[in-house]
Specification:
By secondary structure, the chain is of the alpha/beta class. The protein is built from 19 helices and eight strands. Strands 3-2-1-4-5-6-7-8 form an eight-stranded mixed beta sheet, sandwiched between helices. It is globular and about 80 Å long. The model has no long low-confidence stretch (mean pLDDT about 95).
């Protein structure tokens, strides 16, 4: 009997679809699930007649694989991953490879890589994006971990990954230990930002322009043919056109409480830890939290008042401005995301290739868009680009868009319509282009109440001063440090 090329643990929808994708590319796969019933149902159903072997213990799974054995897990992030690693290590041999294809926190992946390597085996933590459809037809794959493992899994990953229209596979080795899951985390953070920006655009169309859903469908469909062409804009057009059984727009019958699985939150937390102003993505996470406070919002809506929304005098111009606002905010979202990856790469010495990362996102993943070609070109022009806004292309596009962007946010504020992502993105842009900010006052306040010291513009950098602001304090200052 022929041995399988790879084993997969976890037969939820993503696991099943990825296995079927692998099998369609000529691979033989052994599968295992803690519920034997799922294995029976899959092998007797969708996998029937295919080169997919059901196994009913980890021992049986491992015994069915060719050397070096490659075991991939698609299970819930956290304890389940650690439990399976601990169960697999005694069954595997030196040089065998464990792969985590779930949405694990990159810090866990760093720890697990060291742990597995200490047992003379290899470990890969890979981000996989594309949802159920992507897993079946071709996802974007972002692997990192034990570099020595890449040659053994490269052909497998290349065979199942999405491909661009030019035929380029959306997979490449990202870097050591947790690099793959870190990049996937940032991908998901940008995804949060994109979704919130689009949701705010929809809300303005609905609450300020009082547009019908068929007209919103046309606008999003038109946007999807130009600069904003992307998977998320495309599916939004479809959603606007989808009717419930009685012909009513289905989207309006969906409860306005957004869920999340944690990757957006992790992105925000890491931005705080690394000192990167990831404002748009953080606001997108907070917007989901606020949406979750439905009961509180209903109570507040009964007790508070606000302006009555009035349609702008020129709705056509407002729609053009809205398109500019969405596009400019999208630039900010990616600029912040890539700056976070730059800082993470520096801290963990990953030497990330940003053009390669943007290329991996061009097909298969949730944030795929024509926009990514411009990012690839930007990092092609300047490999060590500090911020996308400093690139000539993106700088020129924001210069063209910012007036309309401002008009949209002004209208939203005047009419009492919340646009946290659009407005925080503009605030970031205005902050970034400001040669001076009011932080000098903050430093004076810190020194006043806590003797935290400050630097002076008329003295060399790195020289710190303390002032006895009240005449009652002493000359002793606090230690100087930044978290």
């Amino acid at each position: 009997m022929h041995k399988s090329h790879i084993g997969l643990i976890g037969l939820a929808v993503m696991g099943e679809n990825l296995v079927l994708n692998m099998e369609s590319k000529g691979l033989r796969i052994s599968v295992f699930n803690r519920s034997a019933e799922k294995v029976k149902k899959f092998t007797g159903g969708r996998a029937a007649g295919k080169k997919i072997i059901g196994t009913y213990s980890l021992e049986e799974l491992v015994a069915s694989l060719e050397r070096p054995r490659k075991v991939m897990m698609l299970v819930k992030a956290g304890k389940a991953v650690d439990d399976f690693i601990d169960s697999l290590i005694p069954l595997l041999e030196s040089g065998d490879i464990i792969i985590d294809g779930g949405n694990s926190n990159y810090v866990d992946t760093i720890r697990r890589t060291s742990y597995v390597e200490a047992n003379n085996m290899l470990y890969i933590g890979t981000g996989i994006s594309g949802g159920e459809e992507g897993a079946l037809t071709g996802p974007s794959i972002m692997p990192g971990g034990s570099t020595e493992a890449w040659p053994y899994v490269r052909d497998v990953f290349l065979s199942v990954a999405a491909r661009t229209d030019e035929g380029s596979p959306c997979v490449e080795w990202v870097g050591a230990n947790g690099a793959g899951h870190f990049v996937k985390m940032v991908h998901n953070g940008i995804e949060y930002g994109d979704m919130q920006v689009i949701a705010e655009a929809y809300f303005l169309m609905k609450e300020l322009l009082f547009m019908k859903h068929e007209d919103m469908h046309k606008v999003f469909k038109e946007w999807n043919t130009g600069d904003l062409s992307s998977y998320l804009i495309g599916i939004t057009a479809d959603i606007m056109d989808f009717k419930d059984e009685d012909g009513y727009p289905l989207v309006e019958r969906i409860l306005d409480k957004a869920g999340q699985k944690g990757t957006g939150k992790w992105t925000g937390i890491n931005a705080l830890e690394l000192g990167i102003p990831l404002t748009l993505i953080a606001e997108s996470v907070f917007a989901r939290y606020l949406s979750g406070q439905k009961d509180l919002r209903v109570k507040a809506s009964r007790m508070t008042t606000g302006p009555e929304a009035r349609t702008p005098a020129y709705p056509g111009r407002f729609l053009n401005d809205l398109k500019d606002a969405v596009y400019a905010s999208k630039i900010i979202s990616y600029a912040q995301g890539f700056e976070l990856m730059r800082e993470g790469s520096k801290k963990y010495q990953w030497n990330l290739d940003y053009a390669s990362i943007a290329s991996m996102w061009r097909a298969g993943c949730i944030i795929r868009s024509s926009f990514l070609d411009n990012i690839i070109n930007a990092f092609g022009r300047e490999k060590n680009l500090e911020n996308l806004i400093l690139d000539d292309f993106f700088h020129s596009r924001i210069e063209k868009a910012h007036e309309g962007w401002r008009r949209v946010i002004a209208s939203a504020v005047i009419n009492g319509i919340p646009v946290p992502a659009l407005s925080s993105a503009l605030a970031y842009y205005d902050g970034l282009r400001s040669k001076t900010l009011p932080a000098n006052l903050i430093q004076a306040q810190r020194d006043y109440f806590g003797a935290h010291t400050y630097e002076r513009i008329d003295k060399p950098g790195g020289e710190f001063f303390h002032t006895n602001w009240t005449g009652k304090g002493g000359k002793t200052s606090s230690t100087t440090y930044d978290v």
